[in-house]
Amino acid sequence: MKLPDTYRNLADNGIQEDYSMGYAEEFGFRAGTSQPFYFFDLEKNMCTKLKIFPFQIMDVTMRRYKKYSIEKSKQVLNTLIDTTRIYHGNFISLWHNESLGTDKYWNGWRALFEWMIIKAAKK
User: Fold this and answer.
1) pLDDT-based confidence at 88, cuts 50/70/90?
2) Which domain covers residue 16, as residue numbers?
3) Cβ–Cβ contacts within 10 Å for residue 58, how many?
4) For helices 70-86 and 109-121, angle between their N-to-C axes, nearest 10 degrees
5) ∠ CA(32), CA(74), CA(37), 5° rounding?
6) What is the number of structural domains in the chain?
């Protein structure tokens, strides 16, 4: 992803939503917010119709980059969900099919995903 070119290309081609704003090697609030926002093209000095939905964490960030255990990942997810809730944001995570499957490398991660869904859904 190359900013702002990627977003400009998406907007110019009629794409109205994007969920790729986040870190690969880190977790957190890359856009500084957990609220969706419209991409503002600084070169054209205009707000586009492309709405950006930033994500806070990705499965491979925890497992591959950080090499976190399931328990450590649960702690991080818990903190991110709670922080997002405090600011009335949208908790968005990115999970790949392989981490929810039966591959030994991802053993136990589907249960973590299911826990996260329940935790994030609580009011």
Assistant:
1) very high
2) 5-121
3) 21
4) 20
5) 20
6) 1
